[in-house]
Amino acid sequence: MSTPHEHPVRLDELRAEVAEGCRVLAARDLAPGFLGHISVRVDATRLLVRCRGGDERGLAHTTPDDVRLVDLDGGPGAPGELDVHTTPYELALHAAVLRHRPDVDVVVHAHPRDVVVADLAGLPILPIVGAYDIPGAVLAAGGVPVFPRSALIADAGLGDAVADALGPSPVVVMRGHGLTSTGASVAEAVLRAQAVATLARLSLDVVAAGGELRPVPAEDLASLPDLGAALNLATAWRHELARLA
Asked: Could you tell me the residue ranges of all domains in the chain?
């Protein structure tokens, strides 16, 4: 990626995208209150991330000014970036995933209640639906790993452990904590988090109704069409942004 000094307008666009993504997380109850954050890779050593401080009012009210440019070690990525802001406690989580996964440009860390409850109840994220949510079914069919510790990911060692648990997967569930999702864009990473939360909620409902979680048959999964990024990402994301209004 180019440096922000070469393309300052793009940096402003990315701040706005991260702010929108945070507001969607809150609107979907994926990260209620003021916890949770999104980061975007800017170049080999820097990222934009939702920070603390300033006039912060919680995720539902995130503004581009809450999104600051920092380096992977938590220092300011440019003069003035951290004058009135501080990096999130779990910056190490974002830094580790970006270091381990060069294919990833966006990291979302959120606290969906249904994901936490389902995991604590011993319910894995399975492709229990098909056409109901095709991207979610495909994601779950690929496997959603679990990071088994409930620690705050506040140092490089724990960050590396989460990144190792994530492996090549798009999402990792974090026991007693939430989840971390990844993507090539803010939209993709947030929608993946939402898909996992939807599957967790459906799983809890099925079990509460006395049912058993059964993955969709392989032949049904194989028959599901790829509806393409124009629908799965672009249209889905426009819908999420429209809901904010």
From this structure: 8-244
Instruction: Give start and end residues of each alpha helix (H) in the chain.
Output: 8-27, 91-100, 113-120, 134-141, 156-166, 186-208, 218-223, 229, 236-244
pLDDT of 21 reads 98
Round to whole Å and give the CA distance between 102 and 231. 26
Predicted local confidence at residue 228, as pLDDT: 83
* CATH classification code of 8-244: 3.40.225.10
Task: List, in order, residues 6 or more apart from 136 with CB less than 8 Å away.
Answer: 127, 129, 195, 196, 198, 199
Set 17, 20, 81, 90: catalytic member: 90
pLDDT in tens, 20-53: 999 999 999 999 889 999 999 999 999 999 999 8
In the residue annotation, 240 being an active-site residue is answered as no
- The residues of the chain scoring below 70 in pLDDT are 1-9
